[in-house]
Amino acid sequence: MRLNQVTVPCIEYAASVAFYKALGLIQIVDSPPRYARFECPDADDGEPATFSLHHVDGWEGCDEPLVYFEVGDLNAEYERLMAAGLDFIAAPEDQSWGWREAYLRDPAGNRICLYQAGEYRRFPPWRI
């Protein structure tokens, strides 16, 4: 089994599409105002994971589930996205579990974490 697709709610289609394009996702389906699908740009030598938006009336956003996108250089990505006008709710910070994380919200209020984990993503010292 392999997790390959996540869909999150959106309320303003164009704003959400622009947000995820700014993060670097590649749009592959455009069905406004209800649905958009993206590919993640780095497939780790395999099929790229996909990520979708689906319009939901009355959505007010939430903290959970939290969507994580791994990046190679979090500090550089943070600076690039800040320069592009995206607002972060937490700047990059080293975590006690070995990851470096920064948080922002998409236009629908979904919480997004950009992180850099390296080997600790799959092989932390406490792995069973």
Commentary on this structure:
The protein is α/β, with parallel strands linked by helices and 128 residues long. The protein has a single domain, classed as 2,3-Dihydroxybiphenyl 1,2-Dioxygenase, domain 1. The protein is built from two helices and eight strands. It has helices at 13-23, 74-83; strands at 5-10, 26-31, 35-39, 50-55, 62-70, 88-94, 100-105, 110-116. Strands 1-4-3-2 form a four-stranded mixed beta sheet, covered by helices on one side. It has a four-stranded mixed beta sheet with strand order 5-8-7-6, with helices on one face. A hairpin with a 3-residue loop joins β2 (26-31) and β3. The longest helix is centred in the first third of the chain and has 11 residues, at 13-23. The protein is globular. The two termini are 19 Å apart. The mean pLDDT is 93.
Major sheet attributes: 4 strands, mixed
User: What percentage of the residues does DSSP assign to strands (E)?
Assistant: 35-45%
Global structural class: alpha/beta
Distance between the ends: 19 Å
- How many distinct folded domains? 1
- Tell me the CATH superfamily: 2,3-Dihydroxybiphenyl 1,2-Dioxygenase, domain 1
Order of helices and strands: EHEEEEHEEE
How many helical stretches?
A: 2
Query: What is the CATH class designation?
Result: Alpha Beta
CATH topology (level 3) name: 2,3-Dihydroxybiphenyl 1,2-Dioxygenase, domain 1
Query: What is the overall silhouette?
Result: globular
Report the radius of gyration as a whole number of Å.
Answer: 15 Å
CATH architecture annotation name: Roll
**In terms of per-residue confidence, which ranges show pLDDT below 50 for 5 or more consecutive residues?**
none
Number of strands: 8
Percent helix among the residues? Answer: 10-25%
Query: What topology, given as strand order, has the largest sheet?
Result: 1-4-3-2
Overall residue-averaged pLDDT value: 93
